[in-house]
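Feature request, filed as a ticket because there's no other form

It would be nice if the structure record came with a short human-readable summary line next to the tokens. Right now we just get the raw output. Example of a typical job, pasted below so the devs can see what we mean:
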Amino acid sequence: MLKELVKGGKMNRKIVTAVLVMMLALVFCLTVQAADYKTPDQLVKEAKAAIKEVGPADLKKMLDTKEKVIVLDIRDRDEYEKQRIPGSIQMSRGLVDLHIEEIIPDKNAKIVLV
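Raw output as currently delivered:
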């Protein structure tokens, strides 16, 4: 069929050229998307680089100096009820992914998980 299109004249050559251009564009788009794809390991590495661990003394200092920080307690409810940091928010780890935007809509908020 391709040979027939090429033999057919100017109109057929335009069609073949258009099809080739579209195919090249598609290949280019797929290549660009593949280059933007990150593996799960890369995503985890980036996330870990953005996380800063703080100790109990650091958190106490943040709270004492009235630094704007949200304390999210991800322990089980019974542990939270026994002893908690005043002003902390309790949410089980399994629900954090589902509801974090509802609880903490400010994406720039400093969050400490305990």
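Something like this underneath would help us a lot:
Strands lie at 70-73, 89-90, 111-113.
Residues 2-37 form one domain.
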